[in-house]
Amino acid sequence: MEGDFMNYLNALAPYTLYKEICEGDYFVDKTIMIEEVLNELSAANKYICVTRPRRFGKTVMAHMLTAFLEKGVDSGSIFADLNIGKSSCYEKHLNKHDVIFIDFSNMPWNCDSYQTYINFVGKKISDDLEAEYPECGIIPEAGPWEALDRVFSRTGKQFVFIMDEWDSMFHNKLFSKDDQAKFLQFLRLLLKSKGYVELAYMTGILPIAKYSSGSELNMFVEYNMATSIKYSEYFGFTEEETAELYERYVSLEETPHFDFESLREWYNGYQTANGDRIFNPRAVICALSSNQIQSYWTGSGPYDEIFYYIKNNIAEVREDLVRMVAGEAISVRIQNYAAVSMDLETKDEIFSAMVVYGFLSYYDGRVSIPNRELMQKFEDVLTNKNMGYISKLALESDRMLAATLNGDTKEMERILSFAHDTEIPILNYNDEGDLAALVNLVYLSARNEYRIEREDRAGKGFADFLFYPLNPKKDCIILELKVDRNPDDAIGQIVDKKYALKFRGRLGDESAYTGRILAVGMTYNRDSKEHYCKVIAIR
Hints:
Distance between the termini: 75 Å
Strand content: 15-25%
Structural class: alpha/beta
Low-confidence stretches: none
Mean pLDDT: 88
Number of helices: 22
Helix content: 40-55%
Number of strands: 15
Oligomer: single chain
């Protein structure tokens, strides 16, 4: 049968969708992953599950594998000139396999129960097999695994199963926990210990180990972003790949509206298990295609909202959230938790779930906010009234920036004293690190006008904070912190170590900073429990 008459078996849709991706302006060739997956067959590992956050290319890779392997199409015109075309496995496997591709997020339009949903999936498999192998006498009512067993026993044919969004029903309120348990049994009966399975490749967000209570899916080897090195380079864009895409963007756009550094600031920052940094691929392509840097995070329910994760235990995590907004990484014991599995209460549970869904990046035992796109989400949370004293401090940030630009040190000291009077527990003022966490709160709204860098190299050292104005005509700010010292000491350090060179070095460029350069000294005296500020223009 031709692929365009089939539902799942050697179907036309995955080929068509991947072909469209390949023909796009910002296509990245990751086809060598096909060779790596096929190598698993010789290693006797034919059950593969790749879990990643949303927007990391899971579906694109599933379409790629299907388009290459399935018999129902002729995809040589796509793959011959790509990396996989040079592989020894190319001729052996191109369009040589019966592939059953299932996107479990697709549901019948009138679906009102689990039984309606799973009957829909099972019938499509059986219908395809009956059409392709009429001589086998398939009985659709007997179920899909019975149909597959019959084909295998009579013809010896094996099938590659490629299943996208295996966990979609765990995000759908239509389905109960009992329904989810039945679905796991469906997958077990379909795939486990079956002679007709040549390869099973499955993708999703949620860790399968957390949802398969016993032996249902224990045949799968799972590869996640936090702890698995294998396959890590195929999900997300590397620095080199993104740089090449940016060069393509510059050549295509008559008037490019952003530089590569902006692309890095907004969409880089995730880390693989071996420490490589990767860009969010969907956000990068959206920015390049739209010629605009902005947030392309699109929510599809409560799991895409940060507050959903912390609402059950704000007190446990709010100080850590402030420190992460300050640019720090927080130690955490990563676990296979996800928001749909349980009430999240401990810090480890909450932050582990946020890693699973892509709100946080994880590496070497610590979590952090990956980039500016996600930083906006966290800043919104800090102003939520449920955050208590932290939201009150964050709401003072408009006044703090205005006072700084106007040199109103009395107002700056008032706001800092207000913060101290809240007895905010994250601040012990033992060192400048505690004061830095407060700075990020009281200058929260400044991030709408500035790119704020912590401990950034400048002149002859590292400045505590550099405020780079998004509009180069606006004032630049250098902020230095001291405990039990005089603000003049902080200002002196800014001048003596020539931190201002970080801004002056760009003079003559089209994007040169032409506004004032403000040196800000901010101190706290532990004996008097007073804050002191000084602001001078050094240009």
